[in-house]
Design goal:
The structure is a single chain. The chain is mainly α. The chain is built from 37 helices and two strands. A hairpin with a 5-residue loop joins strand 1 and strand 2. Helix 23 runs antiparallel to helix 24. The longest helix has 18 residues. The chain starts with 5 loop residues before the first helix and ends with a helix.
Length: about 725
């Protein structure tokens, strides 16, 4: 009717009354009699046709906004979830409607909708569930309001929100409101109820209801099913079955959905870690392969990346490489991330030349430009394989063409490759080239360059110059920097003896003090490196004083600056100098200072005595560790002493040792090395009768023939008397 006519006013009044009947009250969804015709005149009712062909009454919209009122719910429902497009469908201009596009433009110009937080979503969902369960049920509750609150609970992603959503969904089912759900509301329900221990069961209940209602699923349904049903690798087979059923009802499975399953496998593999049991790894591996086989023809670069990463994390590198090669033959889409992942996996077993071939093939046949990460993986493989020349070639190609551009990791890798080959000169050249081209240098770069100096015949002054340049360039240093520099001072490849280098030892102590000045407190690694410098300089008293002073000046709560390895450094130093008494004294001093040590250190002292040819000192050291220090006996200590007894053919002492400390012991169990050394003691020092007895030592060492051992000992005692 024309504007201003009586017929037009009559139609608007009727429309206002109809709209008021559908208008929700705050948080509950019932009729609000306070809504007057004057306010309702701004509400435009319209219908829209869903993609499935079902006619659905659209939600009402009020232009004014009141905090906590109906508009906050409507605004929450109209958030940009991708759920609001096409709202209103085609315009019914005969009834005064506007086209959906005009409405969309009008909404976009307005203020952004307030996002409902999790607590508010839970509160409103519980309130609406109570309303639906009350007298009268949900006769006047719009199913879209239920869907709106389910969507808000879904976005909360908490177990509490999932519980509230499940209560709301059940109430809607009992009240009959859920009978009006279209795929939109079902998808909200699938996403909302999936959290918590009962999530999988609830998702299946919603899915069964969707199937019973014969509502056609869509791509969102598939993704919500995948998220809700697949929490780990063991759920993959059942989830794939549900996805197949969903696809049979018209939904199209895509790579995004498959990647949800693969991500569940990735999370499980990461949580299990590299030390996971073979059974866990097998489940993860089989699940990934099942997803890969099920998705043949629809995989993309993301699913390829996820699949080979899962297989590698599950310990089956061969399967990961086979999958990548099969994907290459099948022309599966590939990007640089997938290429980098494949290169990292290939690097586990293949030489650097294979990685370079894969990278070149991707560039030539697929048109991929490898990024810096790809190049760095190849550089790291060159470092591992000792291919420093190949690493330098790739490094200089990156510098000249900037495709891909090098970064600090590239520089560190090429320096490490040269350093491991003992070519500190080439490492310094690469460092200078990177500095000239503006490649960033950090603490890691400085540390690997110092390690390269330590492994070469470069004089300590070269390494000290690198540290001073780093400080001048304001590059932070750490404990590894200090220890790497100290390593250059005692490196065995240094052509001149440290003991004959004036001031070198004092210089090493000054470096540690410089580190303290830069807030780098000594760590066990720094202390051990300093002790090795003292040993290399032949100043064992100073090494002992440094150890004692470091322990004595340790503040409470501060991380320890010494460890068991510090004791071994001193033991090795005294033993190398032929001072076995000094080596034994180190253990006593360590015990007095409260530095704990174990059987590894005790075995090191025993071996040091044996290497010096003093079996008696080794025996005394063994007994002192067991009796006075409370260490052992252990298999490691017994074997260390048996080495000396076997060399000297002391089979009687070997019998006593095994009888006292191995047979029937709870801390020492014979192994193959024990058997071999015991047998050698008989072979070298025994007669034919004892050699024959030695063949039965397997029984003796397992305690199955103690009587025979006792007999031999008794006979030995009788002969001596």
């Amino acid at each position: 009717a024309p504007l201003g006519s009586a017929e037009r006013d009559k139609q608007m009044s009727i429309a206002a009354c109809r709209c008021a009947a559908l208008c929700p009250s705050p948080g509950l969804g019932r009729h609000d009699p306070g809504w007057t015709c004057q306010r309702a005149r701004y509400l435009l009712p319209w219908n829209r046709v869903s993609k499935e062909g079902t006619t659905v009454a659209a939600a009402t919209k009020k232009t004014s906004s009141t905090s906590g009122g109906p508009d906050s719910l409507a605004g929450s429902w109209q958030r940009g979830r991708g759920r609001g497009r096409g709202r209103g469908g085609k315009a019914d201009r005969g009834r005064g409607g506007r086209s959906g596009s005009e409405g969309s433009r009008g909404r976009r110009r307005g203020a952004p909708a307030r996002r409902m937080d999790a607590d508010e979503a839970i509160e409103r969902a519980v309130a609406l569930a109570t309303t639906l369960g009350g007298d009268g049920g949900g006769d006047d509750v719009d199913m879209r309001l239920v869907g709106q609150l389910l969507a808000d609970c879904k976005d909360a992603r908490t177990e509490a929100a999932s519980e509230a959503a499940w209560s709301l969904y059940q109430a809607a089912v009992v009240a009959g409101t859920a009978a009006e759900f279209n795929i939109r509301q079902y998808n909200f329900a699938l996403g909302a109820v999936q959290h918590g221990a009962a999530g999988e069961e609830r998702v299946r209940a919603v899915w069964d209801a969707l199937v019973t209602a014969a509502v056609p699923p869509n791509a969102v349904t598939l993704s919500q099913l995948a998220h809700g049903l697949c929490k780990g690798a063991k759920d993959v087979p059942s989830t794939l079955a549900a996805l197949r059923e969903c696809a049979s009802r018209g939904a199209a499975v895509d790579a995004y959905v498959l990647n949800i399953l693969l991500n569940a496998c990735l999370r499980e593999a990461a949580a299990a870690g590299p030390d996971a049991s073979s059974d866990v790894k097998a489940v993860v591996r089989d699940a990934a392969l099942a997803v890969w086989e099920a998705g043949k023809g629809i995989h993309n670069e993301r699913t390829l990346t996820s699949t080979i990463k899962v297989l590698a994390d599950a310990g089956d590198v061969d399967a990961a490489m086979r999958t990548f090669r099969a994907a290459w033959e099948d022309k599966t889409p590939l990007d640089v991330d997938a290429l980098a992942t494949a290169l990292r996996i290939f690097a586990v077993t293949e030489p650097a030349a294979v990685l370079i071939g894969v990278m070149n093939m991707a560039q030539e046949q697929r048109g991929l430009e490898p990024n810096t990460m790809c190049a760095n993986i190849v550089l790291a493989a060159c470092s591992k394989d000792g291919e420093f020349s190949t690493a330098l070639t790739l490094w200089r190609h990156m510098l000249e063409r900037r495709t891909p551009p090098p970064d600090k990791a590239s520089l560190a890798s090429v320096i490490l490759a040269c350093g491991r080959a003992g070519r500190v000169d080439l490492a310094l050249d690469a460092f200078a080239e990177g500095k000239e081209k503006g490649v960033e240098c950090d603490t890691v770069t400085v540390n690997v360059l110092l390690e390269a100096c330590a492994k070469s015949d470069a004089p300590p002054g070269e390494a000290l110059g690198i540290l001073m340049d780093a400080i001048e360039s304001r590059i932070p240093v750490d404990a590894l920097t200090i220890s790497s520099l100290l390593t250059a001072y005692y490196s065995s490849q240094t052509p001149t003896s440290l003991a004959n280098t004036p001031g070198a030892l004092d210089q090493a102590f000054a470096i540690v003090e410089l580190g303290r000045f830069m807030s780098v407190e000594p760590t066990p690694r720094v202390t051990n490196a300093l002790l090795r410098v003292c040993v290399a300089a032949g100043d064992l008293p100073r090494a002992s004083r440094t150890f004692e002073e470091t322990v004595a000046t340790q503040r409470d709560g501060q991380p320890s600056a010494v460890d068991e390895r510090s004791i071994r450094v001193l033991i090795d130093g005294y033993a190398a100098a032929g001072d076995l008494a000094g080596a034994a004294r180190v253990l006593r001093d360590a015990e007095c200072l409260g530095v704990k040590f174990g059987d590894g250190t005790a075995a090191a002292l025993i071996r040091a005595c044996i290497d010096a040819g003093d079996v008696e000192s080794a025996t005394r050291a063994y007994e002192s560790c067991v009796v006075h220090h409370g260490v052992g006996p252990t298999t490691r200590m017994v074997n260390a002493l048996l080495v000396g007894l076997a060399r000297s053919g002391s089979w009687r002492e070997a019998i006593r040792l095994v009888s006292d400390d191995v047979i029937g012991s709870e801390t020492c169990e014979a192994d193959d090395e024990t058997v071999r050394l015991f047998s050698t003691a008989f072979e070298i020092g025994g007669e034919e009768e004892q050699a024959e007895v030695a063949k039965q030592m397997g029984m003796w060492l397992t305690g199955s023939d103690d009587a025979l051992i006792a007999h031999l000992l008794e006979r030995d005692s009788a002969e001596e008397s």
